[in-house]
Amino acid sequence: MDFTDKVAVVTGAGSGIGRAIATALAGNGAVVAAADRDLAAAEQTAAAHDRIIAVFLDLTSDSSIRSARDEVVRRLGATAILVNAAGWDQPGPFLETDEQFWRDVVDINLVGHVRVSHAFLQPMIEAGRGGKVVNIASDAGRVGSAGETVYAGAKGGLIAFTKSLARELARYQINVNCVCPGPTDTPLFRSLPDSMRQALTRAIPFRRVAQPAEIADAVLFFASDLASYVTGQVLSVSGGLTMAG
Length: 245
Ligand SMILES: NC(=O)c1ccc[n+]([C@@H]2O[C@H](COP(=O)([O-])OP(=O)(O)OC[C@H]3O[C@@H](n4cnc5c(N)ncnc54)[C@H](O)[C@@H]3O)[C@@H](O)[C@H]2O)c1
Description:
Blueprint: E1 7-11, H1 16-27, E2 31-36, H2 39-47, E3 52-56, H3 62-75, E4 81-84, H4 99-127, E5 131-136, H5 140-143, H6 149-169, E6 174-181, H7 187-190, H8 194-203, H9 212-223, E7 234-237
Parallel strand pairs: 1-2, 1-4, 2-3, 4-5, 5-6, 6-7
Helix pairs in contact: 1-9, 3-4, 4-6
Nicotinamide-adenine-dinucleotide binds near residues 14, 88 and 108.
């Protein structure tokens, strides 16, 4: 796939899946802003590739998102590809969680992506060259996941947001799609209790979790011209763990 000189922004690019996406896009010619609230981690992502710059962005702060947007436009130009990959959760029984936790989970996993999309889509539309948005949700948002109940609700919201945004942006030739990873070998997955990780791995038909690069492959498809007529779609990349329609 050829992304030569396309400007891409990847949130959550300091770790795991976001880092793999930023690296894969840059490896295929894009110039990439690796955006993360952990700037040192984003700088590590950038250090591995001369087509990646690191940018501070906190999904929970509208002003930091707008500063990041202005910095990207100034240093790289209008964004052609936006990948919303940042996310956060702390699994546990729903009845043991509290209001502050719910707010944090929804703020990062749903409202944060709404904020980023609102800020970055304006210059994308003004540039008039179309574009691609890829949201990283989760199979938890399609089929549910015990111990990740509020997170699943936020991810389900992100899936619905993707579909409605796809309808609104089609007139600008902007495609909006969603990748739902299954369990993937990242620091987030490694933070789960051993018993949960083993049970999930046993339930996967391929009997292994995904590598972050395998999620990036699906994102690159949606971000490429190969997906020019695909919008509002949700692709599960889960080794067959979920097969619900
Ligand atoms: N790993 C999995 O098994 C799995 C499964 C399904 C979905 N996902 C989703 O994939 C995405 C990437 O997850 P991962 O496993 O690579 O996680 P990770 O913890 O390895 O990386 C997440 C990144 O997001 C950043 N981040 C968190 N909160 C942020 C904020 N407020 N502002 C900016 N950046 C923030 C972190 O600093 C980190 O660099 C997430 O959306 C996650 O929900 C992961």
